[in-house]
Write a structure and sequence with these properties.
Rossmann fold, 3 domains, 6-stranded mixed sheet, 6-stranded antiparallel β-barrel
């Protein structure tokens, strides 16, 4: 990995990590990053990776993902991060000591200060103490800052690991509180057995990336947004109202204030961080920052801290996509599937939707777990329960906030 410059004139302050989910703990680090960047006249940036470092270090321990790379980039930008530097975590990067990595970021990306979060560490020499990073950076001229520790009231540390455990247990409400946005899944609608339509509850069978964290088996009150057909929505980033394409390369520096083209789509530089001694640029469309952004949050957004509505960290609503209340069943359909090894399915019934969803992509936001999956003695009993689930789902979506 070379130390070529990306934006050689930029002077940056950076935080380093996977930032999976961009949860409230991450947001606290970003808030401190932005504050210190403003005070020092440095551009706030996050250094993250196109794949989890454990994919190289210990592949069998790679955790399930809370969000995609594109969602991570855009949520970081919404939180106030100006640049997201995405690096491939390969053997070259793995072998770098903390000092080597700091020198790489300083020479290649103009990083003059680094913010360490709670329990944040990097480098092959596995430094544990804050003073060790200060010493490693001192000869390079990079300042090391410690972000304040963040804890969620009544819960404790907000971490990606804790959130994964909550999702796996089905507690999507608490997981959403720690995330600061709803737990969500995205998948293409594929063909199923089409039993739901015969009982008045047609469902969309979703193909979910197995690397994603999926809630425990059960029935959930959700909100489903129809993104479009798989072909139409390829590369579409729902976090921006007019975005038409996502970052084309996995290893990139995202400049959110690049010049806006005549078509209203902001053109950003994409710099290949793996090319030896050269800079490779490409175009990636991101909507103009003046266009009100939207993100995957509940229909009624959580109430942020006082004054946060107008800040980059304020909650926003998916306002311009066709969205519906949805009952989502995650499980093995014991009432209608008597096979020896029934497959796990994710099926969504969109309340009020009429039409064909096959080939479309749905972004599903999980608001509340209604009940466990169960086997019914008859279809009549199943229909009666589905009617009750429908009422409960509509009541959940009319609630003031997932954070209450």
């Amino acid at each position: 990995m070379s130390q070529q410059p990306s934006y050689p004139t930029a002077r940056r302050i950076a935080a380093i990590g996977t930032f999976d989910g961009v949860h409230l703990g991450h947001r606290a680090v970003v808030d401190y990053l932005v504050e210190e960047g403003t005070r020092r006249g440095l551009v706030p940036a996050v250094v993250t990776f196109s794949s989890h470092p454990l994919a190289v270090v210990r592949p069998e321990r790679v955790p399930l993902a809370l969000c995609t790379l594109e969602q991570r980039i855009l949520r970081l930008n919404e939180a106030g991060v100006h640049d997201v530097i995405v690096l491939p975590f390969d053997e070259k990067l793995r072998r770098m000591t903390a000092r080597d990595f700091i020198a790489f970021l300083h020479a290649g990306y103009g990083v003059e200060a680094i913010v360490l979060g709670f329990n944040n560490s990097f480098g092959s020499d596995r430094l544990k103490e804050f003073d060790g990073y200060v010493d490693a950076a001192s000869t390079i001229g990079v300042e090391i800052l410690q972000a304040p520790r963040y804890e969620y009231s009544g819960f404790g540390e907000a971490s990606s690991t804790a959130i994964r455990h909550l999702i796996a247990s089905g507690d999507v409400a608490m997981a959403s509180r720690l995330l600061g946005h709803a737990v969500s899944l995205s998948g293409q609608v594929i063909g199923g057995r089409r039993i739901g339509r015969t009982i008045g509850f047609p469902t969309a069978n979703l193909q979910i990336d197995p690397s994603c964290a999926i809630p425990a088996e059960g029935v959930y009150a959700c909100r489903a947004c129809v993104v479009g057909t798989d072909k139409d929505s390829a590369g579409f980033v729902p976090s921006f109202a007019t975005a038409t394409s996502a970052v084309a390369a996995p290893d990139a520096v995202i400049d959110a204030t690049a010049d806006v083209g005549a078509d209203g789509v902001k053109v950003v530089s994409v710099v290949d961080a793996t090319a030896d001694g050269s800079t490779v640029s490409a175009a990636a469309g991101v909507a103009d920052a003046d266009v009100p952004p939207v993100s995957s949050v509940p229909h009624v957004p959580p109430v942020p801290d006082e004054g946060a509505d107008s800040s980059p960290s304020g909650f926003r609503v998916l306002s311009d996509l066709p969205c519906y209340p949805a009952m989502v069943n995650i499980g093995r359909r014991p009432t209608v599937d008597s096979s020896a090894k029934p497959q796990l399915t994710v099926e969504a019934h969109l309340i009020g939707f009429e039409g064909n969803l096959y080939g479309s992509r749905l972004d599903v936001e999980f608001l509340h777990r209604l009940r466990s999956e169960q086997k019914f003695d008859s279809l009549a009993s199943l229909i009666s329960q589905l009617e009750a689930d429908k009422v409960a789902t509509l009541q959940c979506l009319s609630a003031p906030s997932i954070t209450d």
